Model the fold of this input.
Amino acid sequence: MNNFEASVEELAEQVNEQISRVRETYGALDAVEATKTSSDGMISVTVGSQGQLRDLRLDPRVYRKLSASELADAIMVQIRRATADVDEQRRRLMEPLLPEGLPYEQVFGERVSLDAFVPPTVDPGA
Done:
């Protein structure tokens, strides 16, 4: 085997390792979820990997303790906590796959734009 063939074989092995890592990571992303429970144990929510509400449990006593608006607010607090936890789990899984120097927020943050993926345009007259 010559040097060129060895280099191609090594490169193919590296690509296959990367593909394997990406597949494992995406499989793990599907399993991400977070459950948060209020300090009094009256409200429990589970949020899935895409931020979807998967489960909501209310202790029957909560209806005597909180008004409807207080209950809604308390539920939203737990959903936000669980969603933040899911976001952090996703970040920990995805950051090792990103190119060095490319921040997670630039690719997956709230204000994602094509600028993270497309080089700036070049002025041909410059």
In short: The chain has one domain: 3-97. The mean pLDDT is 86.
